[in-house]
Write a structure and sequence with these properties.
Blueprint lengths: L11 H9 L8 E2 H8 L5 H10 L11 E2 L12 H10 L4 E2 L2 E2 L1 H4 L10 H12 L13 E10 L2 E10 L4 E11 L9 H18 L6 E4 L12 H9 L3 E5 L17 E6 L2 E7 L8 E7 L3 H10 L8 H16 L4
Parallel strand pairs: 1-2, 5-8, 8-9
Antiparallel strand pairs: 3-4, 5-6, 6-7, 9-12, 10-11, 11-12
Helix pairs in contact: 2-3, 7-8
Length: 329
């Protein structure tokens, strides 16, 4: 079997600033144009949120970014400042809108750093195995990641299915180095998740199957974070998503405990699962070395009256607690 693919995770923050510095005085660009220059329009929302809340200095050029319809959008400083700065640079602003046909700029020089990540995911998708679990599931693991003050903190928990109790846990932390962009969650969370799984393996605490707070085959390229975790760590994994990333399903009138198929590219890749009579569905998809039926069965085995399965609940709780405690806990 060929060796596993390797990929360089780019510094998107640095890449974005390089793009911003290319926008000339007297011109504007859009969040979407910046995202396309990075390699995927899915990055547009992150760009908008980042520019609204970044450390804003006097010489910052973030005022040269507007919405796709030319409206000024949000700004890190005072809204009136954005129009004033553009006017001072020769950009005409009428009714809080810029004529992109006259002032728009999209001629960026950029290597599109998200595209190699897409190619990596396409190769990794070919390594995903959808096969039945071979052993009785006695121990279910779960991983979750929380963020605080620039740190990504992962927690791994081991859940005893027969006793329905937490048997073991471990946390690990790394600097936060990649933003949240839909479809690219693995590049944000995989390094620190690998840390806690490594600790579990060294301690003999690796579960029969691991639940991942995210998606598996329910992904634009059929390889969500749960599939990355499974293939690259050689463990059976199940994705448990809290929202529908992609695909289509009908959850109208679902009863507690009911599941319904989620379709993507004319395939059933996941099941929508309503754990309680009220509240939103979960979206269960195989990550690696499990079938969809196995995935649903395992989640049901560790579900209580909470919305999320017990192992994920505890992984979330422990990762949040460790993140708030800081590096010197």
């Amino acid at each position: 079997m060929p060796s596993l693919p390797r990929v360089h995770i780019p510094d998107l923050y640095a890449e974005l600033w390089q793009l911003l510095r290319q926008v000339p005085v007297g011109r504007v660009t859009t969040y979407g144009a910046l995202a396309r220059a990075l390699g995927d329009v899915a990055a547009a929302r992150w760009i908008g949120e980042f520019l609204r809340g970044h450390s804003h200095e006097r010489d910052c050029v973030c005022h040269r970014v507007v919405r796709q319809d030319g409206s000024l959008g949000l700004y890190a400083g005072q809204p009136c400042e954005k129009a004033a700065l553009l006017l001072a640079e020769g950009v005409e602003v009428r009714d809080d809108r810029v004529d992109l046909a006259r002032f728009g700029f999209e001629n960026f020089r950029c290597a599109k750093p998200l595209e190699p990540l897409q190619r990596f995911q396409a190769k990794l998708a070919d390594r995903v195995l959808l096969c039945p679990l071979t052993n009785r599931v006695r121990r279910v693991g779960a991983v979750d990641v929380s963020y605080h003050d620039g740190r990504a903190v992962a927690a791994y928990v081991l859940w005893d299915v027969a006793e329905q109790k937490l048997a073991w846990s471990v946390t690990a932390a790394r600097p936060e180095q990649f933003p949240y962009i839909p479809g690219y969650l693995a590049f944000r969370e995989l390094p620190v998740i690998t840390d806690v799984l490594g600790a579990a393996r060294r301690g003999g605490r690796l579960a029969d199957v691991v639940l991942v707070d995210g998606n598996g085959r329910l992904h634009h390229r059929h390889v969500g974070v749960a599939s990355h975790v499974g293939v690259l760590n050689d463990v059976p994994t199940i994705g448990v998503g809290k929202s529908l990333l992609c695909g289509r399903t009908d959850t109208t009138g679902m009863a507690a405990g009911e599941t319904r198929p989620v379709w993507l590219d004319d395939q059933i890749v996941a099941e929508a699962f309503r754990p309680r009579e009220t509240g939103k569905c979960l979206y269960i998809s195989p990550g690696h070395r499990v079938t969809l039926n196995d995935a649903v069965r395992v989640v049901r085995a560790v579900q209580s009256d909470r919305r999320v399965p017990e192992p994920i609940y505890w992984a979330d709780r422990l990762s949040r607690r460790a993140a708030r405690a800081g590096p010197h806990q």
